[in-house]
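Run log // design_07
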């Protein structure tokens, strides 16, 4: 018997994806081969343990799948060890803590409001609850110039003062390349483990358009579904430098994943990761990775032409972070997200460096090009999309002007902010220009099929 309700929702989601443009930098489209494997017979199996050391029988084929995924990961990233079992990125990162730290140990990571990730020690995360976390931020000034935005003197000062056991390098909202050597020098000075979270840029590293952390860090974690273009999953890798620091590190990682944090791995996911890794090993993937960056830079230039302030002065990877506070004041990223959604352009509100508002009402937007590049869009389409984004932002600006010259959303009492957003949504849904832009986006998007 068909499940009509779920079938309807699947069809609606398919329609949304095909008719719109996906600009959330942490999203992508897995290939049809990856998706096929996700629903294969491996979805039925249970396989606690590791290859050749399972707690259940009937795992001879699962063992070969996992070993194949491991070998492909090692080859793609040039590492001696890989664990492909983590369910997702956050559990993978938590496993690194479990393998290298004890509860209460000091760890360092990039602050969430500075573009870091929750699992790099934010206070609401388990990583911030069970460990003493020191957060480093970006430079206080000139964040819109094209320059390395990390204050290494400040990071070194914090590391020497607090002596962390583990330091994270990696981000979810940083538009530039990472200088892993400088982070490594700091970590080595205080004898800390250095873990690189490459979840966002794994595909760019595999494609040769972003520096690899392999020579500088001890541990690498990554999701498999962003620029790597695979299923939702994760991996943990140990480098040669990691083995020299601690020869038992691979065993500690394995024990942290299972039985430390997880039960049986999702074998269908492991098989799909193996397929995605094989796709990333092909020459065509390098062309794809290069196009991601070209598209991101083209989109960034168009947004700058439209008057937006971009963190880092643009983009060196797949991601763009725009500050909207000069247009609308602090805390107004949500209005851009909601209006652009209605126009068929999906991105997310995001904090900016030195955020003047809060993570709940951030002042920026985060956007990127992995998914649109997968569909075959290039610089021409990016410039078109950039123009449409600027048009939508102009519509929002006009709406704010009607509220009065001295109006400030961030200055509204907290209890009135939700009501103001609802009224904004009701009004903007009826806006003819928004509907016109949505039709233009739809017409363009349908020319580029989704895998």
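design_07 sequence
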């Amino acid at each position: 018997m068909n499940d009509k309700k779920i079938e309807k929702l699947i069809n609606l989601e398919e329609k949304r994806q095909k008719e719109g443009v996906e600009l959330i930098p942490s999203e992508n489209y897995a290939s049809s081969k990856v998706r096929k494997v996700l629903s294969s017979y491996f979805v039925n199996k249970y396989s606690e343990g590791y290859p050749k050391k399972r707690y259940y029988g009937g795992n001879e084929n699962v063992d070969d799948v996992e070993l194949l995924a491991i070998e492909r990961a090692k080859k793609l990233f040039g590492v001696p060890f890989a664990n492909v079992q983590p369910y997702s990125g956050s559990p993978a990162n938590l496993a690194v803590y479990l393998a290298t730290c004890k509860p209460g140990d000091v760890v360092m990571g990039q602050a969430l409001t500075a573009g870091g990730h929750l699992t790099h020690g934010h206070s609401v995360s388990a990583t911030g609850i069970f460990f003493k976390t020191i957060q480093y931020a970006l430079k206080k000034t000139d964040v819109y110039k094209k320059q390395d935005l990390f204050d290494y003197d400040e990071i070194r000062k914090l590391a020497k003062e607090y002596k962390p056991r583990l330091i994270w390098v990696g981000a979810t909202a940083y538009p530039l390349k990472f200088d892993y050597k400088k982070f490594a020098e700091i970590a080595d000075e205080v004898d800390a483990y250095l873990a690189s979270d490459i979840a966002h840029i794994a595909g760019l590293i595999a494609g040769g358009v972003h520096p690899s952390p392999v020579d500088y860090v001890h541990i690498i974690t990554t999701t498999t579904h962003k620029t790597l273009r695979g299923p939702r999953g994760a991996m943990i890798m140990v480098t040669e430098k990691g083995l020299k620091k601690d020869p038992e590190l691979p065993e500690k990682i394995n024990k942290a994943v299972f039985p430390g944090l997880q039960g049986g791995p999702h074998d269908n996911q492991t098989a799909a990761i193996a397929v995605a890794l094989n796709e990333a090993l092909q020459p065509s993937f390098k062309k794809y990775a290069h196009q991601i960056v070209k598209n991101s830079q083209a989109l960034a230039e168009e947004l700058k032409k439209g008057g937006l302030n971009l963190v880092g002065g643009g983009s060196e990877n797949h991601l763009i972070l725009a500050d909207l506070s000069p247009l609308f004041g602090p805390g107004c990223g949500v209005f851009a997200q909601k209006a652009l959604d209605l126009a068929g352009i999906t991105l997310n509100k995001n904090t900016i460096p030195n955020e003047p508002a809060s993570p709940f009402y951030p002042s920026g937007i985060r956007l990127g090009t992995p998914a649109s590049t997968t569909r075959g869009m290039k610089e021409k389409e990016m410039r078109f999309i950039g123009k449409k984004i600027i048009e939508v932002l102009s519509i929002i600006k006009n709406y704010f002007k009607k509220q009065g010259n001295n109006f400030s959303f961030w200055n509204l009492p907290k209890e009135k902010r939700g009501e103001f957003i609802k009224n904004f949504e009701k009004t903007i849904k009826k806006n003819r220009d928004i509907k016109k832009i949505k039709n233009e986006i739809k017409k363009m998007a349908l020319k580029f099929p989704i895998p």
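The two ends are 27 Å apart (CA to CA).
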